[in-house]
Specification:
The longest helix is centred in the N-terminal third of the chain and has 15 residues, at 73-87. Strand 13 and strand 14 (361-367) form a beta hairpin. The chain has a single domain (8-399), classed as Beta-lactamase, CATH 3.40.710. It has helices spanning 17-29, 73-87, 97-100, 114-118, 133-137, 139-148, 165-177, 184-196, 221-224, 230-237, 242-246, 275-286, 296-303, 377-389, 395-399, and strands spanning 8-12, 34-41, 44-55, 60-61, 68-69, 200-201, 254-255, 259-260, 272-273, 324-325, 328-329, 343-346, 352-356, 361-367. It is α+β, with helices and mostly antiparallel strands and 403 residues long. Helix 1 packs antiparallel against helix 14.
């Protein structure tokens, strides 16, 4: 008997049928397990799809409210949170971090600006002191360790992906400037998620049941070597490489008994949520969110081109060129994911969320089958179909003509 295909639920508005075809095609041709995709266009939800399997071991289906760990897609959510704090006058991107956090000004970090820190240019991609879950949960203790860390090189000269440390530094900075001294995850929950009604958490509450969470399926190392650049693969094999040191706590959000850890805040890699929530929050920022009170000046900063460090955008951890700005990835020739003013972040395994203010787009894609591409083909076909649906098949090169 021929096995039935995956159940796909949700809707697409007229004109966006190609996105549904791409979503179904991921299950047919790209080994999708369970996933969701959502698109907001000019403030309207025009794509909202989910389907497949939430838990491969039990066969439980992916449902409308299923949430999944999105790893570094969380960075963009944290970047939005910091942007809202900036919009409310709590800090300036071009001010020194030490103005707001005096203890930070030690061991060569005195002149690091918020902008440099959030662009992965501070040389603080790893921590020399041991940090386990108990230290992460103790924000005061974590702050002391963060402040003591010595940069790997002169800040502002090179770039290295702050895979996990970025969120910890952002959170402590926000604690210092927020009148309520809230962590980044709490600030996001109070000021953004609750205001917009989002199923999205930087710190997953203890009362979320396992039945709402998708179980991840990881790719094999053999598969990984066929999908990532050889320079990155070789670096990832060496325990003391920049990327291995940067990713030291990347699996802390996982929990054997409860799928994902509860009440553990990892703002650069521990977010859990739905594609709908990711697309909705990016849509709000793409439109300059009146509801959240986002200032036009802040949105202009988010849309502005990335500023490279002295030696350019070559990343000393990722081993590729990638432009970062204010906590986000920016489109470039290597990954032309939207108009030049777009901002967002992909996550390990394939998830992605971004805003394209020029097109009026808020986009979210999440999955539980972890793949190892730097640019995931499942996400790419969805974005391609989305832009074709609005009559812009080449948004990046439309503004940057090919040579």
């Amino acid at each position: 008997m021929k096995q039935a295909g995956p159940v796909i639920s949700g809707f697409v508005r007229h004109g966006f049928e190609a996105v549904r075809e791409a979503f179904v095609g991921n299950f047919k041709h790209r080994d999708e397990l369970g996933a969701a995709c959502c698109v907001y266009y000019r403030g309207e939800r025009v794509v909202d799809l989910w389907g497949g399997i939430r838990n491969e071991a039990t066969g439980e289906p992916w449902e409308e409210g299923t949430m999944v760990l999105v790893f570094s897609t969380t960075k963009g959510i944290s970047g939005l949170t910091m942007a809202l704090a900036h919009s409310r006058g709590l800090f300036d991107y071009d001010e020194r971090v030490s103005r707001y956090w005096p203890e930070f000004a030690q061991r060569g970090k005195e002149t690091i600006t918020v902008r440099q820190l959030m662009a992965h240019q501070a040389g603080l991609f790893a921590l020399d002191e041991p940090v386990d879950r108990s230290v992460i949960a103790n924000l005061d203790m974590l702050a002391v360790i963060l402040a003591r860390q010595k940069p790997a090189w002169k800040p502002g000269t090179r770039q290295a992906y702050h895979a996990l440390t970025l969120g910890f530094y952002e959170s402590e900075l926000l604690r210092r400037v927020d009148p309520g001294h809230r962590s980044l995850g709490q600030y996001f929950q109070d000021e953004i998620a609750n205001s917009l009604g989002l199923d999205l958490y930087i710190r997953l509450p203890v009362d979320i049941p396992n039945s709402r969470l998708a179980v991840l399926k990881f790719a094999s190392m053999t598969h990984a070597f066929t999908t990532i650049p050889i320079s990155f693969a070789l670096a990832a094999m060496y325990p003391r490489s920049n990327i291995r040191r940067a990713l030291w706590a990347s699996l802390y959000p996982l929990d054997k008994e409860r799928i994902y850890a509860r009440a553990l805040e990892i703002p650069a890699g521990g977010g859990v949520g739905t594609a709908r929530a990711i697309a909705q929050v990016y849509s709000e920022f793409a439109a300059g969110s009146r509801k959240l009170g986002l200032r036009e000046e802040t949105l202009r900063q988010l849309m502005a081109p990335a500023v490279p460090p002295l030696h350019g955008f070559h990343d000393e951890a990722l081993k590729v060129e990638v432009p970062f700005s204010l906590g986000f990835s920016k489109p470039d020739e290597g990954n032309p994911f939207g108009h030049p003013g777009s901002f967002g972040t992909p996550g390990a395994g394939g998830s992605f969320g971004f805003a394209d203010p020029e097109a009026g787009i808020g986009y979210g894609y999440v999955t539980n089958r972890m793949d190892t591409y730097l640019i995931d083909p499942r996400d790419r076909v969805l974005r391609t179909a989305m832009y074709r649906s609005i009559g812009e098949p080449d948004p990046y090169y439309g503004a940057h003509p090919r040579a």
